[in-house]
Q: What sequence folds into this?
């Protein structure tokens, strides 16, 4: 059976380091995506990439550790192994993948890869179960105890909309992105190499704060009095204020109050820099430069931090750098009999050679 699956990357407009605490975020799927095209059958998953090195060849029934040692450290095949181990497809797959999501930039290239592969290998549950499966795959492939935002955005994207996610109540509310706003992503030039261990440390610090004052998603600023450790106070202060900023930002976006939305983005960046300490001097300088540019409403780091990308909300055409991204549809199967040139960029699709 011939299959063609596509899954987008994402950018988060506001609400970072809140998903694994049952908080709020407002990401959107973007018009950069990963595609998988091939044939189901056999007892191995065999994939080649148009852009990335190497071929991945994994027995569908091998233990995860065996698959991970077959692909080696830092290889994109780890994410394939993670999905195969979680999905345990009844048949194999042979095909090719290509992607227009830049790797290591904080636009969730790994989530797009996992979601596209899970669909290609035959996942047939709900959007949420697809995202949960891919979140587990990401955690086992990377060792990072990530939340579900990236995989859920890739799976659930809606054209023209950002997604107001409430991770405590498992709800997604679409919020239209006004046509007269540009969403622009600018790479800082720093790839996110330290993200893994620092991410786990931040998560553990928040969980320590929660063991002292209860769930941060429902905490108020007054609850910070229960934290004597200044570091835990700062971490908790970020989470409590960030959740509130997401709510206010979503209202501002709905009401087309772009200046207010931009101000909230700048406040969010300051909170990630000072309270959560996941920014870098390069990201700070880039945000300051963008925010001071005429026509830019606001800018902030997006995703985990420690390098990667900044997102800016601007008047149309205000920035002539970075990539303008459009709020896009989520992952889906395409008609595999149609030509495979549906995604911009990415060059030719490398068909399997055997
Ligand atoms: C990474 C994780 C997400 C989320 C963000 C920070 O992208 O994969 O789950 O925690 O960082 O908001």
A:
């Amino acid at each position: 059976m011939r299959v063609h699956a596509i899954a987008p990357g994402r950018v988060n407009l506001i609400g970072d380091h809140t998903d694994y605490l049952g908080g709020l975020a407002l990401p959107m799927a973007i018009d950069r995506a990963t595609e998988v095209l091939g044939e189901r059958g056999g007892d191995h998953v065999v994939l080649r990439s148009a852009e990335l090195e190497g071929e991945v060849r994994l027995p569908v029934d091998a233990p995860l550790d065996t698959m991970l040692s077959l692909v080696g450290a830092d290889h994109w095949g780890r994410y394939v192994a993670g999905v195969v181990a979680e999905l345990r497809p009844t048949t194999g797959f042979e095909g090719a993948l290509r992607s227009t999501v830049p790797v290591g930039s904080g636009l969730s290239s790994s989530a797009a890869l996992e979601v596209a592969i899970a669909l290609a290998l035959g996942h047939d549950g709900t959007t949420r179960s697809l995202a949960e499966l891919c979140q587990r795959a990401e955690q086992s492939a990377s060792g990072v105890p990530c939340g579900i935002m990236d995989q859920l955005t890739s799976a659930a994207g809606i054209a023209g909309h950002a997604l107001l996610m409430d991770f405590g109540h498992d709800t997604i509310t679409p919020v239209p992105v006004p046509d007269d706003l540009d969403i622009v992503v600018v790479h800082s030039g720093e790839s996110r190499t330290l993200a893994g261990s620092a991410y786990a440390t931040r998560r553990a610090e928040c969980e320590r704060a929660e063991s002292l004052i209860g769930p941060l998603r429902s905490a108020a600023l007054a609850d910070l009095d229960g934290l004597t450790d200044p570091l835990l106070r700062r971490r908790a202060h970020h989470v409590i204020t960030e959740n509130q900023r997401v709510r206010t930002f979503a209202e501002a976006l709905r009401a087309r109050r772009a200046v207010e939305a931009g101000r909230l983005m700048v406040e969010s960046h300051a909170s990630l820099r000072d309270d959560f300490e996941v920014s870098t001097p390069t990201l700070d300088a880039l945000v300051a430069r963008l925010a001071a540019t005429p026509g830019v409403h606001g800018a902030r780091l997006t995703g985990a931090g420690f390098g990667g990308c900044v997102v800016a909300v601007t008047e149309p055409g205000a920035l002539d750098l970075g990539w303008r991204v459009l709020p896009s549809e989520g992952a889906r199967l395409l008609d595999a009999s149609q030509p495979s040139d549906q995604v911009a960029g990415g060059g030719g699709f490398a068909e399997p050679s055997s």
About this structure: Residues 342-354 have pLDDT under 50 and may be disordered.
